[in-house]
UniProtKB/TrEMBL annotation:
One of its GO terms (molecular function) is serine-type peptidase activity. Coiled coil: none annotated. The keyword Secreted does not apply. Residues 69-93 have a biased composition (Low complexity). It comes from Bacillus australimaris. Residues 59-68, 121-138 have a biased composition (Polar residues). Residues 1-28, 59-93, 121-149 are annotated as: Disordered. The keyword Transmembrane applies. Residues 1-11 have a biased composition (Basic and acidic residues). It holds the Pfam family Trypsin_2. Belongs to the peptidase S1C family. This is Serine protease. The lineage of its organism: Bacteria, Bacillati, Bacillota, Bacilli, Bacillales. Keywords: Hydrolase, Membrane, Protease, Serine protease, Transmembrane, Transmembrane helix.
Length: 438
């Protein structure tokens, strides 16, 4: 992984990568994606090899004429083919270059400043022993990380930038660098750790371009995509890279400040570097189809990066603009992935059969007065499905709730209690407590 002193994201990647899997009976997935600076790629240039026409001895004039005619015909066909290919390649490159020039003014850099405590010790005179009470403590804002963003809305004197939550998280101050070299102050409108999205407000006085949001549901594997961002900080601002869509509708787990989250992503083979986080993933016609967010950072793994689909981003951005936060349905349970519970406990205490082991969520605690409590859920229940959709982990449970349900909905929760399957109807409310998982 590329390291950079100014990258908050890099240190985050290292901590996530090195964090031991405590309390787990076995590994729960084939990889862990890491929130980092995001997305680059490799531009492959086609090389065309032309074979010369083979010369042979000629027996007579007729044959000579015939052969020469054939030679001219063949060579002309080859020439025309190569010229056509060259023109097509040139036109394609020119089209992408024009697109990049057009959309680049909507791409910004974001710098995160956080308060750093400093201590100034004053001894007064040499006869006075050192005393901690004599320390003068001050706080100074220092640059702790950089990322990217894309201007997606302009309204009157204000404009709005989409970026990742991990780019702005913990900031005391945000600055935004624009296409024309101006650096202006940014104001956080709202952020959502579970989807790794944030909206930042800036003055529209220097904004000349607003990006067009596309349709990520129309993406196909193999489609060319372009990423623009600030890998490794502002020194390489607005770096343009190219790749393809490696896969759509992927689901990955991500560790966030609000807990583990399971999110839908676009997979791309574009290279990922710290500082690209929050930048756009674009189609060749310049429409934003994703917000680059994470990568697989593991020895022997290359070209596995992810972007948040713009169709999933839009409603989150709209709610952040309207309310500054995301209102999610609340059950009121503290939970644990069942696979983290010893098999002997699952069998002897919870009454699970061999085929049911590790298949669900163990309820540790029920919040008093919560929807779960009112519906009759109890600690040591094992939740296995919501509205008939099987779930195996807590992140899958959250994903199902947050994606397919809303505050006020009534959902059917299938659970196993004392070895017997039951169904409870739970009416969801808005989250009120930080002490429970969901």
């Amino acid at each position: 992984m590329t390291h950079h002193n100014d990258e908050k994201q890099t240190s985050h990647e290292q901590q996530t990568m090195e964090q031991p899997q405590t309390h787990k009976k076995k590994r729960s997935g084939w990889f862990k994606p890491f929130v980092s600076g995001v997305v680059g790629g490799t531009l492959a240039l086609g090389v065309y090899v032309l074979s010369p026409y083979a010369q042979h001895p000629l027996n007579n004039t007729a044959n000579d004429s015939s052969t020469k005619t054939a030679a001219v015909s063949t060579n002309n066909t080859s020439d025309n083919s190569s010229k056509t290919t060259a023109v097509q390649t040139s036109n394609s490159s020119s089209s992408i270059s024009s697109m990049v020039e057009n959309v680049s003014p909507a791409i910004v850099g974001i710098t995160n400043y956080q308060a750093q405590s400093q201590t100034d010790t004053s001894f007064g005179d040499f006869n006075t022993p050192f005393d901690e009470s004599q320390q003068n403590k001050s706080s100074q804002e220092e640059k702790t990380g950089t990322g990217s963003g894309v201007i997606f809305k302009k309204s009157g004197s204000k404009a709005y930038v989409l970026t990742n939550n991990h780019v702005i998280e913990g900031a005391n101050k945000l600055t935004v660098s624009l296409h024309d070299g101006q650096t202006i102050e940014g104001k956080l409108v709202g952020a959502d750790p579970l989807t790794d999205l944030a909206v930042v407000e800036i003055s529209s006085s220097h904004v000349t371009k607003v990006a067009t949001l596309g349709n990520s549901s129309s993406l196909r594997a193999g489609e060319t995509v372009i990423a623009i961002g600030n890998p490794l900080g502002e020194d390489l601002s607005r770096t343009v890279t190219q790749g393809i869509v490696s896969g759509v509708d992927r689901t990955v787990s991500m560790d966030t400040s609000a807990g583990e989250s399971s999110i839908n992503v676009i997979q791309t083979d574009a290279a990922i570097n710290p500082g690209n986080s929050g930048g756009p993933l674009l189609t060749t016609d310049g429409k934003v189809v994703g917000i680059t967010s994470m990568k697989i950072s593991e020895t022997g793994v290359e070209g596995i990066g992810f972007a948040l689909p713009i169709n999933d981003v839009k409603p989150i951005a709209e709610q952040l603009l309207a309310k500054g936060k995301i209102e999610r349905p609340y059950i009121g349970i503290s939970m644990l992935d069942l696979e983290q519970v010893p098999d002997v406990y699952q069998k002897e205490t919870l009454g699970l059969k061999s085929s049911q082991l590790d298949q669900g969520v163990y309820v540790k605690e029920i919040a008093a007065g919560s929807p779960a409590a009112k519906a009759g859920l109890k600690s040591e229940d094992v939740i296995t499905a919501i509205n008939g959709k099987q779930i195996k982990t807590g992140s899958e449970l959250r994903h199902e709730l947050y994606t397919n349900a809303k505050v006020g909905d009534t959902v059917n929760i299938t659970l196993i209690r004392n070895g017997k399957e039951e169904t409870k109807r739970v009416t969801l409310t808005q989250s009120e407590s930080k002490q429970v998982s969901s």
